[in-house]
Design a protein that fits this description.
about 500 residues; eleven-stranded mixed β-sheet; alpha/beta; about 40% helix; GMP Synthetase, Chain A, domain 3; four-stranded mixed β-sheet; Rossmann fold; single chain
């Protein structure tokens, strides 16, 4: 395995100079990519509809092609799933990444072309390793096994042909090159099991005696897996099971609420946590600095980026810009056009630039995941920072949470209700609530204004839920697995009422 580590490390590091090229020439790289995407799609049904053959500039593109969400593209995607081709993209599409649904659809089926699989998703994985190995040349991660928490998949027959539907991570595992299969665990048939409780059990049983050096996945699900490993092994921490553990590549949700639990499970000052931005629609970025979790934006992965200031959301003719016009510190809705046939696609994430030389971002939330019932405009970034402050001051550790508004009634003003499942409860819940409230005021002037003298919003209400409540709710929804996430903030009470109902003590009489 020492030889394997040396060879793979050398292979990955060869990519570093190409990463440096797009960092130093971002506008040229994106401009060239834009032309290539338009040229590839000009003879597709979509390209003909919007006259891609005569698009010569970004201005032309903005004027002709509409901004889309999944619902607007669904009719085209459904036709591709039914066997039609050359609709949104000019190469054959037989893979669809199943993602959590929208308001009108239980699931989204994101088309994955061969180009997007190889030039975006696989390339993103290689670049992640290249950046990591460049930062940590002493890494021995390939001396052991890589554990990746993949989703499930199934194969669907359509008109005597096959297309494949699965979580993006499962599609990637299904198509891994041979050398990757050699260094990963567990074996593919277990990694792709559909039923999550059985899957976690089998993965733990198979990997507990391996030499696992690195982890990849969504923090909440990896946490469940690691706790099961400790139960099976009867050890007190992960380093007693896997002494060569060195890095966790995480993504999907904000890692901040999970940091303390991971430090307890993996008590090593040398353990590294690397932030990634990898979605069903593309692999967009990776943490490239040792001392910061901000994300270097990948610019040559088949994705052309646009950015919409949040005050433009839901306008009839919203203003958008490309990289040469963005500013740091502003929240933008991310819009992508990809080599899988997503055109001006509003992905649903909001980002803010922390640097424009090179372009680095942080994920600040979701366009539909916020609380703005009374003009307070609380986004996930506000919530995560405020919760982190409250946890620090009360020595609490959070497993999961969600929040929603409580509306005015004849006796009381409005409020925000927080349902929190703690790994370690706060020493003083009242102080926790006060700290949360004060932190939100300091982070968000709109919230502070609504809280003034309790005139609109009274102080938050924090309810502690029994451990396992969120897991049981997700299970009841049929949404176990890394592609599904607990909705952190909602502008209505649908989710919170369901969770509260589930957490009520059962009356046996």
């Amino acid at each position: 395995m020492v030889i394997v580590n040396s060879v793979i490390s050398w292979m990955m590091k060869r990519r570093v100079h190409q990463i440096e090229y797009f960092m130093n020439n971002p506008h040229e790289v994106q401009s060239e990519l834009f032309k290539k995407l338009i040229d590839n799609a000009k003879n597709t049904e979509w390209g003909k509809k919007y006259h891609y053959n005569s698009i010569n500039s970004y201005k032309d593109f903005k004027e002709r092609a509409p901004i889309n969400d999944y619902e607007k593209l669904k009719v085209y995607i459904d036709r591709i799933r039914n066997g039609e081709q050359n609709i949104l993209w000019n190469s054959e599409i037989k893979l669809f990444a199943k993602s959590s649904g929208t308001t009108n659809s239980k699931s989204k089926f994101i088309p994955v072309s061969n180009e997007s699989l190889i030039d975006c998703h696989f390339k993103g994985g290689k670049d992640l390793l290249a950046v990591y190995l460049n930062n940590y040349p002493d890494s021995q991660m390939f001396d052991g096994k890589a554990f990746a928490m993949a989703g499930s998949h199934n194969i669907v027959k359509v008109k005597n042909d096959n297309y494949y539907i699965g979580d993006l991570s499962a599609l990637i595992v299904e198509n891994f090159p041979v050398w990757v299969q050699y260094i990963k665990t567990p074996e593919r048939k277990i990694a792709l099991l559909h039923e999550w409780e059985n899957k976690i059990e089998q993965m733990a049983q198979q990997t507990v005696n391996e030499n696992v050096t690195n982890l990849s996945g969504v923090p909440s699900w990896i946490l469940l897996f690691l706790k099961r490993i400790l139960e099976i092994s009867h050890k007190s921490n992960i380093l007693e099971v896997w002494p060569n553990m060195e890095v966790f590549f995480h993504g999907g949700v904000n890692f901040s609420p999970y940091v303390e639990q991971y430090k307890q499970l993996i008590p090593s000052s040398k353990m590294r946590y690397i932030n990634t931005y990898n979605a069903s629609e593309g692999f967009f970025g990776v943490q490239d600095k040792i001392d910061s979790d901000e994300l270097l934006l990948f610019l040559d992965h088949g994705v052309f980026y646009e950015f919409m200031p949040l005050d433009q959301l839901n306008r009839e003719n919203p203003k958008t810009c490309q990289l040469d016009e963005v500013e740091t510190g502003i929240n933008y809705a991310l819009i992508i056009s990809t080599n899988g046939g997503l055109w001006r696609y509003l992905i649903g994430d909001t980002v803010a630039f922390t640097s424009i030389n090179p372009f680095r971002i942080k994920i600040t939330g979701r366009t539909q995941n916020f609380i703005n019932a009374f003009g307070e405009e609380i986004i996930i970034d506000n919530a995560e920072k405020a919760l982190a402050s409250a946890c620090k001051k009360t020595k609490a550790i959070i497993n999961e949470y969600t929040a929603a508004p409580i509306y005015f009634n004849k006796n009381e003003n409005a409020a925000h209700e927080w349902l929190i499942e703690f790994e370690t409860q706060p020493t003083d819940l009242e102080f926790f609530t006060k700290t949360l409230d004060n932190s939100l005021k300091s982070l968000n002037s709109d919230y502070e204004a609504k809280r003034y003298h309790d005139m609109i919003l009274r102080k938050p209400i924090v309810n502690i839920l029994p451990k396992g409540t969120f897991y049981n709710w997700m299970k009841k929804q049929g949404k176990l697995g890394g592609q599904n996430k607990v909705p952190r903030l909602a502008n209505n009470r649908k989710y919170i009422e369901e969770i509260l109902e589930l957490s009520k003590p059962k009356n046996n009489h």
